[in-house]
């Protein structure tokens, strides 16, 4: 295949643009913000789960406290009623004894309930502190997630802008290259990732290998408009003043 040396030089321009586009693709895929974002999202999920856990515990304790308050209130009402009956006129000795026994039982029951109520209220206070702490942790995690997301979006926007510029530059080069030459370049780029490379100091800049004497002799003998390839990697090899031929 033939190609004017000037066209071959433009293949190097195209290869450089494609290399930059490949670097941008790699940069997009390996942004550190991706890992940071995953960690931040995991932290938010963990914080939310912990908050649900302590809020559920707090709700259970609140229900227990309300139940105990009702039980204590019931015991107090029963105690008040018995005291009124005991203080009333016309009460028999047996009934007075029974009422006194019941009052003693109610007093013990009230003491037990109040002790349980105090213990649960102390637990509720501790869990309340856990709830507040968990809310702070969640708010901090959400703030960090927002910050990482913003950094990631800024980095991606940066890459998008660079890609747009490089694709525009690629289009400008592509239109100056004959279709058959461009086709050969694109086929090798799809196979190996690189379509063309310069020969500098007898070394292919794609595979970085120095060509042997036979290959160098063949390149020296080839007309300037021959589209030649590297014997090692098959890339279109562009000869320049720096090739060392």
Let me know the number of strands: 4
Distance between the termini: 21 Å
Order of helices and strands: HHHHEEHEE
Specify the number of helices. Answer: 5
Gross morphology is: rod-shaped
Mean pLDDT: 93
Structural class: mainly alpha
Largest sheet: 4 strands, mixed
| Helicity range | over 70%
Strand content: 5-15%
Strand order in the sheet with the most strands: 2-1-4-3
Topology:
Blueprint: H1 5-29, H2 32-87, H3 93-174, H4 179-192, E1 196-200, E2 203-204, H5 213-221, E3 228-229, E4 236-239
Parallel strand pairs: 1-4
Antiparallel strand pairs: 1-2, 3-4
Helix pairs in contact: 1-3, 2-3
Provide structural commentary.
By secondary structure, the protein is mainly alpha-helical. Helix content is about 75%, strand content about 5%. The chain has helices spanning about 5-30, 30-85, 95-175, 180-190, 215-220; strands spanning about 195-200, 205, 230, 235-240. It has a four-stranded mixed β-sheet with strand order 2-1-4-3. Helix 1 (about 5-30) runs antiparallel to helix 3 (about 95-175) and helix 2 (about 30-85) runs antiparallel to helix 3. It is rod-shaped and about 135 Å long. The mean pLDDT is about 95.
């Amino acid at each position: 295949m033939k190609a004017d040396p000037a066209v071959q030089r433009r293949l190097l321009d195209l290869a450089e643009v494609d290399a930059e586009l490949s670097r941008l693709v790699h940069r997009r895929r390996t942004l550190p913000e991706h890992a940071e974002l995953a960690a931040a999202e995991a932290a938010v999920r963990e914080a939310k789960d912990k908050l649900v856990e302590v809020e559920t515990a707090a709700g259970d304790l609140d229900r227990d406290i309300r139940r105990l308050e009702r039980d204590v209130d019931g015991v107090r009402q029963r105690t008040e009623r018995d005291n009124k009956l005991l203080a009333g006129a016309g009460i028999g000795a047996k009934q007075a004894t029974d009422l006194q026994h019941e009052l003693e039982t109610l007093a013990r029951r009230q003491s037990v309930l109040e002790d349980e109520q105090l213990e649960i209220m102390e637990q509720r206070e501790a869990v309340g502190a856990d709830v507040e702490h968990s809310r702070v942790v969640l708010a901090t995690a959400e703030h960090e997630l927002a910050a990482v997301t913003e950094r990631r979006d800024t980095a991606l926007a940066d890459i998008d802008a660079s890609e747009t510029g490089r694709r525009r530059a690629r289009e400008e080069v592509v239109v100056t290259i004959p279709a058959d030459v461009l086709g050969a370049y694109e086929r090798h780029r799809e196979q190996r990732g690189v379509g063309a490379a310069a020969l500098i100091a007898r070394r292919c800049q794609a595979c970085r290998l120095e060509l042997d004497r036979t290959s160098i002799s063949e390149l020296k003998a080839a007309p300037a408009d021959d589209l030649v390839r590297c014997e090692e990697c098959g890339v279109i090899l562009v000869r320049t003043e720096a090739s060392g031929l």
